[in-house]
Specification:
Layout (H helix, E strand, L loop, with lengths): L2 E8 L8 E5 L2 E3 L8 E5 L3 E10 L5 H14 L1 H6 L5 H14 L5 E10 L2 E7 L3 E6 L2 E4 L6 H7 L5 H4 L17 H6 L5 E6 L5 E5 L1 H4 L4 H8 L3 H15 L4 E8 L1
Antiparallel strand pairs: 1-4, 1-12, 2-3, 2-5, 5-6, 6-7, 7-10, 8-9, 8-11, 11-12
């Protein structure tokens, strides 16, 4: 199975780019793309990811790039194994604690494509949406204060969007999350999925879903995601606040 991919990143209204994009070993971390990039992925197995660094003066861009570099180190494993790779993320966390100074951190959302089967993984609030006929849903799971409130029934979906504490992250990778990794049993969220013909994944940092509701994302993309992706990008540029990055992928 071959795949078609569209991807884009923009610094938004920030002073530095803390996002990083990973596509099968190619890493992108620049202020902005002039337009949405397109490419084809040949063969059945691929690894795609976005990371959103945090830390301000602690240089979140270093943490997000570090995680993408480590994914590149492990790319052969992801391509050859069908196992759920929790141990690899533990190893990345151990290495980032030792090699990246300060209290920086990063989210990560990634998809391993293996024919029609997929592994969806995330830590933090970067998301993986699945766009299908008549529906959009994020099949990742936010590690955030607002998501915890949703999970426990204290907030509705409508109340969650625009919540003043929406960007409070409870888990991710990096020194800022050291105590959580070593003091709890929290794990990277993993979901197994099947990507059918005519379905798509949108892998994105929160700079996308902070300015567009899920139904707006669906309305902009569903009729033909790759035909409409430039309009989707333009809509994000009009509303952007934070850095934002995304990867759109579907079978050819």
């Amino acid at each position: 199975m071959d795949y078609r991919v569209g991807y884009y990143m923009n610094i938004g209204r920030r002073n530095n780019q803390e996002d990083c994009i990973f596509i099968d070993g190619k890493i992108f971390q620049q202020d902005r793309f002039r337009k949405t990039h397109m490419k084809k992925l040949r063969g059945p197995k691929h690894l795609l990811a976005v990371c959103d660094g945090m830390g301000g003066h602690s240089r979140g861009e270093v943490a997000s790039r570090f995680v993408c570099d480590r994914l590149k180190d492990y790319l052969r494993y992801f391509r050859s194994s069908g196992e759920i790779p929790q141990n690899l993320f533990h190893d990345i966390q151990d290495r980032i604690e030792k090699e990246v100074p300060g209290k920086s951190g990063t989210t990560v959302a990634c998809v391993v494509l293996n024919g029609g089967n997929s592994l969806v993984m995330n830590a933090g609030d970067s998301r993986v949406y699945k766009i299908a006929k008549g529906d959009i849903a994020y099949i990742s799971h936010d590690h955030s204060y607002v998501q915890s409130m949703l999970d426990n029934g204290y907030l509705s979906e409508a109340e969650a969007y625009g919540h003043p504490h929406r960007n409070v992250i409870e888990f991710g990778l990096g020194g800022i999350f050291k105590d959580i990794w070593h003091g709890t049993e929290r794990q990277v969220h993993v979901a197994e999925d099947v990507l059918e013909s005519g379905e798509y994944y949108l892998i994105c940092t929160d700079g996308v879903n902070d300015v567009l509701r899920d139904d707006e994302i669906y309305d902009l993309l569903h009729a033909g995601p790759f035909d409409n992706v430039e309009g989707f990008t333009e809509r994000l540029r009009e509303s952007m606040k934070d850095n934002f990055s995304f990867i759109l992928v579907g079978s050819m």
